[in-house]
């Protein structure tokens, strides 16, 4: 589990700030939801595992473009379920 989590964290740290222009303030892992990040814009993104990371990053960027970073504050974007992302 550690190695899987470490791999996804490395990808997230290496790509999110550059690709999305958002800073991460916290990275958490749990057995229930996998990896979750908190942004400096005040919202969370649940990645789960490292599967389809480029797709997940593209969906994240699309949601941010649609709603706007400011309107995402206080919400959770869940990217664990492939083509069925959830924004709560």
Can you describe what's shown?
By secondary structure, the chain is α+β, with helices and mostly antiparallel strands. The chain contains three helices and five strands; from the N terminus they run αβββααββ. A five-stranded mixed β-sheet has the order 1-2-3-4-5, covered by helices on one side. A hairpin with a 7-residue loop joins strand 4 (76-78) and strand 5. The longest helix is centred in the first third of the chain and has 19 residues, at 2-20.
Topology (SSEs and partners):
Blueprint: H1 2-20, E1 24-30, E2 34-39, E3 44-48, H2 53-67, H3 69-72, E4 76-78, E5 86-87
State the major sheet.
5 strands, mixed
Given the C-alpha coordinates, what overall shape results? globular
User: What proportion strand?
Assistant: 25-35%
| Amino- and carboxy-terminal Cα gap | 27 Å
Arithmetic mean pLDDT: 91
- Classification by helices and strands: alpha+beta
Read across the widest sheet, the strand sequence of neighbours is 1-2-3-4-5
Tally of individual helices: 3
Give the total of beta strands. Answer: 5
Fraction of residues in H or I helices: 40-55%
Q: Which consecutive residue ranges, at least 5 long each, have pLDDT under 50?
A: none
Specify Rg, calculated over alpha carbons: 12 Å
Q: Element order, helices and strands?
A: HEEEHHEE
Summarize the model shown:
With 88 residues, the protein is of the alpha+beta class. It has helices at residues 2-20, 53-67, 69-72, and strands spanning 24-30, 34-39, 44-48, 76-78, 86-87.
Which tags fit this structure?
88 residues, alpha+beta, five-stranded mixed sheet, 3 helices, 5 strands, globular
């Amino acid at each position: 589990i550690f190695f899987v989590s470490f791999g996804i964290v490395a990808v997230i740290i290496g790509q999110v700030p550059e690709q999305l222009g958002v800073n991460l303030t916290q990275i958490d892992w749990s057995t229930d939801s996998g990896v979750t990040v908190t942004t400096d814009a005040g919202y969370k993104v649940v990645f789960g595992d490292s599967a389809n990371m480029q797709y997940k990053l593209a969906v994240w960027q699309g949601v941010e473009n649609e709603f706007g970073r400011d309107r995402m504050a206080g919400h959770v974007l869940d990217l664990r379920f492939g083509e069925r992302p959830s924004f709560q």
